[in-house]
Amino acid sequence: MKPIWKWIIGIVAGLLVIVAVGAWYLSRHWKPILDAQIKETIISATDSLYLIAYDGLDFSLITGNASIKNLRLTADTNRYAELVQLEQAPDNIYNIRIANLRIRQFHPRRILSDRKLNIEGIIIDTPTIHIVSEYHAYNDTVTTKRDMRTLYQRISGLLNEVSVAAIQLNNIQFKFSKKTDSTVNETALKNLNVQVRDILVDSLSQFDSTRFYHTRAIDIEMPGFRYETPDSFYYVSFDRLQIATLYKQVKLTGLKYAPRMSKEEFYKRKQRATDMAVMAFPMIRLEDIDLQQFVKNQKIHAGSLHIDSGTVAISNDLRYPKHPTNKIGKSPHQLLMKLKQPIKLDSLLLNNIAISYSEVSRKYKKEGKITFDRVNGVFRNVTNDTLSLLHNSTMAADITAYLMNTGKLDVAFTFDLLDDKGGHTYKGKLGPMNGQSLNRIITPLLNAEVARANIRGVRFDVKADDHRSRGSLRFDYDNMRLNLLTTDEDGKKMSMKAVSFLANSFIINDSNPDANGQYHTGRINYARPQTYSFFKTLWQSLLQGIKECAGISPEREQRLMNAAEEAKKASEKTGGFFKRVFGKKEK
Questions:
Q1: Mean pLDDT of 143-152
Q2: What is the pLDDT of residue 108?
Q3: In 3D, which of 364, 375, 427, 363 has the Cα closest to residue 404?
Q4: b (16+ CB within 10 A) / e for 102-116
Q5: DSSP state, 181?
Q6: Read out DSSP for 41-94?
Q7: Which end of the chain is more exposed for a tag (fewer CB within 10 A), N or C?
């Protein structure tokens, strides 16, 4: 090797050693300066409310890597008390702990040469965030001058650009404590994971509408969560929550709302006849959600909400006493308008939902059940947003279901969201079905059964409000026969043939048109009792029309009930005698 190359290699090696030693020296001696600067900045920026501490601070100018261990940002309680006395304390204070914070490749050279801070990655392990909220009335009235500058305008005096390729927050533990005069309510979320991609703050990104707060994408994932309601009867849980800002999407899987106990225990503790609800939805999706609107104003504005499959089961036990309450003003669209949470959905889509209602009869102690299977539908303009309602105050719904999983039911609703009286309409049709399918609800509750009935179709058109339903119903059927039942000493149901014959021959029309060729149209004019819910009122209104089509006037219905009761009493008096005389003797 020629001597010249020895000199070159020696000079380069020497320069590398000088750079390495210089970087080590700067890192070693800058650390105390940097440490003091960080602490002073936090104290100054927060008016001495917060203190910062950590167990280890390491960084390398050569690799551009840095790390902080056991970082703690805590509120000074003494200073907070002083600010409360001065009426300058905020409503929320924060306590944050981070087990390990790592910064990868922050390119210090570019800070000096181009005034650009470029970071390849930031990893934050096991952050614990505790927010304590306490309301202070003076914060509603105090007027402070807000800094209206953009984030870039605030940093432009120091840097031309800040970019971070990725931020990863692993295993976040979050707790929110709401203080009142007498209690502290707490909400805890555990094991959250957040990934932030492509953060950019420069002169152009501040105007980039495709970014969400200067980020290209934020992905949030939270595993299982369970919340028990204050009354201790119900819980709400889900298996997984996912938020993707890039796709403007929120996914919720495994959502459940159910009692914390069995049905028997539920009513034993309630000691009254009230609805018990069990709901489960494997997947709920919010599409095209305006996340910036939610962050700024806590408003849920989205293109569509999808509920893909699921079950809704409502039950009641009338063996317990009722405690009637006024249900006026509590129809679904009225409850939507009373929600404190502002909502605006272009559409809500239901896909393959199973809905059922069951009831234990007070008189016969049996459970009747009606089901609406394979429910599909769409609700349009689901909103309580005042500005949106000025343009369109009608929520519309088109729903298809299968009654008792057999008869196809199509219903179209309209709801006037601004009507003080809860105005709404519904019209629809039920397709052909075998009437015996209805025995699942008729027999346990009414002690009667449909022996046979060929339902060709039902059509209805009703206009209603909080107090009355008016409309018409057409019920096309033939070959209908009813059996009125009684129960023998062994608990077996048996037909009261004489009364059933009288009912079928003289009270109920066995077809429509009837035997004389006359077609009966049901006229609906139903006054809603204040204690009836929206859905019970809907059913009773339609039942009024069905009865009129079947020729069952109130007078005829009363005669039928009286005849059934008299026959039952006669059976009880004579049945034992005939059984003793003609029955088989036990061996």
A1: 64
A2: 67
A3: 375
A4: bbbebbbeeeeeeeb
A5: S
A6: HHHHHTTT-EEEE-SEEEEETTTTEEEEEEEEEEE-HHHHHHHHHTT---SEEE
A7: C
Q: Distance (Å, rounded) from C-alpha 483 to C-alpha 496?
A: 7
Q: How confident is the model at residue 19 (pLDDT cuts 50, 70, 90)?
A: very low
Question: 172 pairs with which residues across the strands?
Answer: 192
Longest dimension (CA), the chain: 135
Rounded Cα distance between 503 and 481, Å, is 9
Q: In the predicted model, is pLDDT for residue 8 greater than 60?
A: no
**Residue 265 predicted with pLDDT over 90:** yes
Alpha carbon distance, N-terminus to C-terminus of the chain: 124
d(CA 514, CA 551) in angstroms, rounded, equals 9
CA distance 542 to 409: 14
Taken in order 489, 493, 498, 502, the sign of the CA dihedral is positive
Helix, strand, or coil (residue 474) = strand
Q: Are 434 and 493 in contact (CB under 8 A)?
A: no
For residue 15, count CB atoms less than 10 angstroms from its CB and return exposed for 0-12, middle for 13-18, buried for 19 or more: exposed
Q: What is the DSSP string of 287-301?
A: EEE-HHHHHHH--EE
Q: Which DSSP string do the residues of 117-168 spell out, in sequence order?
A: EEESEEEEEEEEEEEEEE--THHHH---------HHHHHTTT-SEEEEEEEE
The per-residue pLDDT for 14 is: 45
Torsion, CA 96, CA 98, CA 99, CA 104, rounded to 10: -170
Q: Which of 431, 442, 409, 506 is nearest to 476 (CA)?
A: 431
Annotate 202-255 with DSSP letters as a single string. STTGGG-TTSBTTEEEEEEEE--EEEE-TTSSEEEEESEEEEETTTTEEEEEEE
- 3-state secondary structure at position 185: strand
Q: Can you name the residues that pair with 308 across neighbouring β-strands?
A: 283, 351
Contacts of 347 (CB under 8 A, 6+ apart): 303, 304, 305, 378, 379, 380, 382
Single out the residue of 200, 391, 348, 220 nearest to residue 291, CA to CA.
Answer: 220
392 by DSSP, 3-state: which? coil
